[in-house]
Amino acid sequence: MPSPNWNAFAGVALIVLVVLIALARASQAMFVDDEAGGGDRREPAHRDGTAQTAAGGRAVGRGDGGVGEAETVADETTRRPEYGPFESAADYPNVTNEVTNPATEAEFTPGTLLVNVALSQGLFGVVLVVAAVLAAIPADALGLERVTVAQLGIGVLLGVGLYAANEVGQRVADTFGIDYDDGLRELLTPDSLGGWVVLLALVLPIIAGFEELLFRSSLVGVFAAGYGISPWFLVVASSVAFATGHGAQGPAGVLVTGTLGAVLASAFVLTGSFLVVVVAHYLVNALEFVVHAHGDSSR
User: Fold this and answer.
1) Of 71, 186, 223, 246, which has the fewest CB atoms closer than 10 Å, so is most exposed?
2) Confidence class of residue 49 from pLDDT cuts 50, 70 and 90?
């Protein structure tokens, strides 16, 4: 069996990290520029036919293709696109820029956005997997040496607990008036059964798998095994990087995301299991969509 090429894999992982953060920051900057220019954020074409007054003061008609009687909804239209606890602008490349363009609004349904997410995140994941295979990285360094039912159970419990903690964190942020953007649910929440199947069975597993492979397996597991760096130092470093990639969520969002990332990284160190953190990550995102979509539909 060939010796692991730690340097080659570490180089690829760091390049992927830099590209991911750069995409997140660029997408965030594009939307900030759009806000500064008085641009309006339009809702997806499949939403209801009411009209709302956008942040720039113009009435935006929805559903009938024209400008209707304006209904001012300040707390909706003055917010940036919302990101969930484990979501960043890099998870949805070009979304923030494209959906503000009236000419292309109708093209970007939840279905097309979900496909965009699956392809972009999947590509990053494939790069890491291929690099790990070619560099002969040991499975145990990635947390893949064994998979057990107990690990699955721990992941489920951890995911539900983290989701509950995230909800509490959002409520606390709201209480103190701290800026927190809590998900791209308005744009990405499916409007059909097929869309929900794609979201829950394809897109969210890909996001969870890729981000855990990068931020926990690679930046913590591989760097600790290959270079003898303290895993607890790597827990802190990887969590800072994880939070940096989620800057579009605002100050509270960065803090919450960094904390959740630190908990997942700690769980990875303690269990040595990729499965535990992937299941937990997936459940946080899935519950975020399902619970809030149900709450929105019941209003």
Assistant:
1) 71
2) very low
